[in-house]
């Protein structure tokens, strides 16, 4: 059977804009498959298993980590990509790489490092993910980083301030940061990863929030997206209670959002009829989207989680101690670079080297280092 025809708006590995350093093609894999494999075998990817989402890594073995989150994003992304005729391998590569730059202790770590790096370029986890794949991984004899394709790197760079975009564009004119300077969007595959990230986040934070006891189901039923699928689950299975009811509710929520994305995106593609991936990049609005109704429901759930989970006193207490750990580590390393491994200690950009070293740590390694350097046990 012949493979289905690739739609003109989908990314095509045979027409990739290439790698920064040209390499011979792989004999058995497409360029995007090769990128995915390099990401999976990277040191930064393996460390995601011990980096947290909301809960500290030691708080329980069943809560999500950056690794499980990345796998969930990849699964959702591939399912949607298959229905829309997009390149599944590119979606998977971007999904698996999008959190490589996250610090230990979730967003608390990013905020601390950004404060520590004021005056030295700041810190942003999305830019750090790009630094990991472009510079920090050291696995190959002829280049630093993973030397990924333009399309994969374009998807990894999800956010970028104008100041950082200007710096990237100066080094790579017309490259992955140009859209942040002149408008435009990334490929549909990259847009899909952005939305799959949001869907996965909301669903697993509902699950982890209830599992942890920080959110009560009664609270969640105030949120329309949860309530309608909880009621539908009960109507179909009146005997369901407890975690089975919660899981069925989340499953239905996920399915509804996936089908909504597929339908809304198909409608947008039918209206605009982009004839190339560049037409997607220059469209007036992103073409991979929720319907307006689902966008409103997803946003309401996100606001609920922010107010009731991310700002919960127990989470905030943990966050405060995590922030102290990273502030102390940064001060210790800047004050004595010999406390870091030689390849970081020998770099002339002392503050950036310290930020790179700390950002690469797992939660538990950061805690061990903090105890070694300060003699304190905060957790």
UniProtKB/TrEMBL annotation:
Alphabetical GO biological process terms: dGTP catabolic process
Signal peptide: none
Region entry Disordered, spans: 1-35
InterPro entries (UniProt xref): dGTPase, dGTPase-like, dNTPase_2, HD/PDEase_dom, HD_domain, PHydrolase_assoc_dom
Key words, A-Z: Hydrolase
Domain HD: 66-202
One Pfam family this sequence matches: HD_assoc
Family as reported in the entry's similarity comment: Belongs to the dGTPase family. Type 2 subfamily.
Protein name per the record: Deoxyguanosinetriphosphate triphosphohydrolase-like protein
Phylogenetic classification of the source organism: Bacteria, Pseudomonadati, Pseudomonadota, Betaproteobacteria, Burkholderiales
